[in-house]
Amino acid sequence: MELGFFGTLLWPIKWVIEAILVGFHSLLTAAGLESEAGVTWVLSIVGLVIVIRALLIPVFVRQIKSQRKMLEISPELKKIQDKYRGKKDQFSREAMSRETMNLYKKHGTNPLSSCLPLLLQMPIFFGLFSVLNDAYAGRPSVGLLTPALSAEFGSASLFGVAPLGLTMATSDGNVAVIVIAIILVILMTGSQFLTQLQIMAKNQSPEMKNSPMYRQQKILLYVLPIVFVFSGAFFPLGVMFYWFVSNIWTMVQQFIVIRNMPTPGSEAALAREARLAKKRQKKGLPDPDAAAPGAVAVEEPKQTTQRQQPVSKNRAKKQTKKGGR
Amino acid sequence: MSDPAVVRVIRAIGLIPRNIIVAVLHVYRAVISPLYGDVCRYYPSCSAYGLRSVQEHGVLKGSWLTARRLVRCHPWAVGGVDDPPERHHSPYRRTRFGFIVLDRKA
């Protein structure tokens, strides 16, 4: 069998994907689902998403932790932002990015998630694409997907009418495929939109809302639907479904995080405070902030660090007469 | 140099592969990069690093440098400023759009 460069690269990934799919498939058939039913295979794809996204949870947790640490360095970050405020030329922006990065490094924290996880998800996506295509075309699989299973997977269909291996482009007039692909595109765009909006509207501190990163995210909101429409035409339904379930996972994950560990200073953080306060009231517990009454409310008299100049007795008298000190 | 014209042509042909990759990277940075937003833990970002190293060092060495950088850009990396190795006496010139051409004096 001719493999080629990409085939060789994808081989181990395809093997793992097949193993996970077959694993879930046998679990599901053991649970009483029909082996060749579309539902069984669709749920196997859901299983694949669960395994892969669960493996990525530590990466996600790590990212959140470092985002929390951002609060500690926010004064310094603000200083850099003020320094370059209003300077929009390329060199200032570059210098600003460099200083920001150095600041992150100095404090051993970094709010960005890094490139490698993204890069690792791409082959999984293409691996599934390839496994599905092979199964649909009746080509031999690379691993645990036996010819019989492969044939089942290839002909498995969503709701019994739309084969998973078909794309909008290869649907050949199969209306069900086109309709389902369009619905998936709409759902994907919707879920992505919600996730992004959720982050942007609720989980960002005011400083973050002024950063160029925020503007980029905003642009993203409008680029995504175009990408989804395009992919809807060329990716098989099975792959689209994988992508959709993965999006849903992101959305739920994001929702949990925003609810329970919001970015300090953001709207979501205030909402959480309010929720917790209400809970305490219900249970009749004292407010921890109220334990030291006046701690926040009473403002300390401002202390000036400037030294009072000593004055001669005569002068001091004059000043008091004038109504000074 | 006995025949600068021939040498120039050969060198110009030698620049084609890296300019193709430069074009591909431009498209990637314009179309696909925005999909992810800012993710890179380094400055310049991985794709900018890749672009720079291919421009400076050609496809082979540039790819190698970029691959190593991508592996470095993992969730446990500290990040920071990380520029590609510079080439001090490059015989080429970078155009406004980032393509690499022969310098007039070369």
Characterize the structure shown.
The complex is a heterodimer of chains A (325) and B (106). Chain A is mostly helical. Chain A has one domain. Chain A is built from 12 helices and 2 strands; from the N terminus they run H-H-H-H-H-H-E-E-H-H-H-H-H-H. In chain A, strand 1 and strand 2 form a beta hairpin. In chain A, helix 7 (175-202) packs antiparallel against helix 9. In chain B, the strands form 2 sheets. A two-stranded parallel sheet of chain B has the order 1-2. A two-stranded antiparallel ribbon of chain B has the order 3-4. The longest helix of chain B has 27 residues, at 46-72. Chain B starts with a helix and ends with a strand. Chain B has one domain (4-102). Chain B is elongated and about 55 Å long. Chain B has 3 helices and 4 strands; from the N terminus they run ααβαβββ. The A-B interface holds A 58-59, 62-63, 97-98, 100-102, 104-105, 108, 110, 112-119, 213, 216-217, 219-220, 223-224, 227 and B 34-43, 45-46, 70-71, 73-81.
